[in-house]
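// run 5 | inverse folding | seed 20
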C-alpha cells in the first residue's frame, strides 16, 4: 500500500478492509517521513504494533 492511501484510510471515518498477514487490521496512523504505520488487529485492539506499508493490503 502506498503512503498517501494509507494516510487517507487512517483519517477516514469509514472502516476499510485492510489486512496484514491475512488478518484484518485498523490503521491508527502513518509515521511521518517513514513508510510505516501503527496498527492493531481488529480482534485484539490492545496490542498495537508498527508495520511496513508495503505489507498492508486493502481488500
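// decoded
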Amino acid at each position: 500500500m502506498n503512503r498517501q492511501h494509507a494516510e487517507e484510510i487512517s483519517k477516514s471515518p469509514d472502516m476499510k478492509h485492510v489486512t496484514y498477514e491475512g488478518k484484518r487490521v485498523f490503521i491508527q496512523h502513518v509515521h511521518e517521513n517513514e513508510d510505516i504505520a501503527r496498527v492493531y488487529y481488529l480482534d485484539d485492539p490492545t496490542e498495537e504494533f508498527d508495520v511496513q506499508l508495503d505489507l498492508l493490503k486493502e481488500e
